[in-house]
Amino acid sequence: MILQNLLQRITVLETIGTLEREVSELVFDSRKVVENSLYVALKGTVSDGHYYISQSIEKGAKTIVCEDLPSEINEEVTYLKVENSSKALGHLASNFYGNPSEKLNLIGVTGTNGKTSVTTLLFDIFKNLGYQSALISTVEYRIGDEITPSTHTTPDVIRLNQMLAKAVEIGCEYAFMEVSSHGISQDRIEGLHFKIAGFTNITHDHLDYHGTFQNYIYAKKRFFDELEDSAIAITNADDKNGLIMLQNTKAKKKTFALKTMADFHGKVLEIDFNGMLLNFNNKEFWTTLTGKFNAYNLLLAYGIALELGMDETEVLQAISTLKRVNGRFETIKSDSGIFFVVDYSHTPDALENVLDSINEIRTKNERLICVFGCGGDRDKTKRPEMGDIATKKSTLAIITSDNPRTEEPTQIIKEIEAGVQPQNFSKYTSIPDRKEAIKMAIKFAEPKDIVLVAGKGHETYQEINGVKHHFDDKETIRELLQLMGK
User: Fold this and answer.
1) To which H or E segment does residue 77 belong?
2) Binding site for ATP, residues?
3) Claim to verify: residue 92 and residue 104 sit in the same structural domain
4) Which residue, 56, 147, 371, 423, shows the most beta carbons closer than 10 Å to its own?
């Protein structure tokens, strides 16, 4: 593609060299440069891409986009100085791949919890309704029937546009993607055209990256602030920060809620481990998904589907046939009658929601055992909070490891234990080895008891010192049940 044609919606402060230059590839990693590449020098949190400009030119880059022009100028190279390289990259990527987000109905969902569930539910609803769609989520990327493992919740903007372009090529009409706070802050969604933006909820998370809760809120809010006036913004009116998302948006404003009046209002009429009887906008239906948090997820998916013009009755019928999302409140029942719930809940709010959902369902004659941990090299402020929640809302909490990464597991556990209230000291134990912790829960459990194994959900690994070791909670539960004869 000719360089001149890639510069739509980009303000170039200074140009050195010709714009009539062929661009074979867009790259921001100097290691991926090929002949005639356009290299974008990004100022990252770890390294500055400007240091690799000369290296990129040596490898064949003929166009450089940067915020600071290098002191030495190569006459065979075109240099474009911009105010913000990462924002420029978003528009370059969109233009390079033919602006695919404008040829699709692109739906973005943000929030602390529920992003994966809502986007996956939407993908499945629209598949049920007969539409080809794309899904970009924490668990996997799907383009029609093609599935590839996910690398990031929100991939880099080049990869995003590649996937969206492929979705357009195979005839997809819709694309549903998770939009993370990291992705927003790092301009990974710059240049994308969103039809609808949905907000699930916000609680303390990623403070290791954002620094303060206010910064975290602002990162989410920025997604809505930058929507076009042709877009639709749907927020959770029950979340205390939900309406903040709509304060400065130019988009059409919509709300959903279980507790307050909203454009899309829901009620949980009946609930058990097999599912829920729900009422959405005065229409009753049954779903095999369970837990109040899933009622919120379904309500947002329902609202988005209706805003996209789908028939309400057909949407509710599609929802009724949905299966549970991988690693989200998945249940296993042992031969002896012990109920296991495997869930990805790895934040205080998510853990509390799952425990509350189980406590709403159980009759209190059964014991509730919670196996959980906290990730290493991540927000430490949530550790004591999760220790308090788990011990307060469980019969027994077993604190264990959950991707310790470069931290010492016993130190993470100590920080979790610091939040346990004195009256709950007798309600927990600590076992650093996750398999042994699950084994302890099975050993302690009796028929009809409920064991929540939280934190990993769909993940099939345990990350220790930079190495991912195979570990699957569901697989481990089944293996131990067979071994222990329960």
Assistant:
1) none
2) 111-117
3) no
4) 371
How far apart, in Å, are the Cα atoms of 319 and each of 107, 257, 275, 288, 389? 18, 18, 12, 9, 31
Torsion of CA 468, 327, 452, 301, to 10 degrees: 140
pLDDT of residue 138: 87
Tokens 């993370």 correspond to: 180
Distance CA 127, CA 10 (A): 36
Q: What is the CATH number of the domain that holds 143?
A: 3.40.1190.10
Which segments are annotated as binding site for meso-2,6-diaminopimelate? 378, 402-405, 455, 459
Question: Angle, to 10 degrees, between the axis of helix 292-307 and the axis of helix 115-128?
Answer: 50
Among residues 73, 85, 66, 82, which one has the least CA distance to residue 187? 85
| 49 within 8 A of 28, measured Cβ to Cβ | yes
Task: Report the distance separating Cα 410 and Cα 402, nearest Å.
Answer: 11
Does one domain contain both 193 and 294? yes
Domain total of the chain: 3
Do residue 86 and residue 138 come from a single domain? Answer: no
Handedness of CA 117, 121, 124, 130 (dihedral sign): negative
pTM of the model as a whole = 0.86
Identify the domain boundary among 79, 96, 113: 96
pLDDT at res. 486 = 93
Query: What pLDDT, on the 0 to 100 scale, is given for residue 43?
Result: 93
* Spans of the chain, pLDDT less than 50: 210
pLDDT for the residue numbered 151: 76
pLDDT of residue 248: 95
What CATH number does residue 426 fall under?
Answer: 3.90.190.20
C-alpha dist (Å) from residue 217 to 45, 202, 241: 20, 7, 8
Q: Are residues 146 and 163 in the same domain?
A: yes
| Cβ neighbourhood burial of 142 (10 Å; 0-12, 13-18, 19+) | buried
Same structural domain, 240 and 264: yes
**Chain centroid to CA 436:** 29
CA distance 111 to 108: 10
282: number of Cβ within 10 Å: 7
Q: What is the pLDDT of residue 205?
A: 53
Instruction: Name the residue range of residue 72's domain.
Output: 3-96
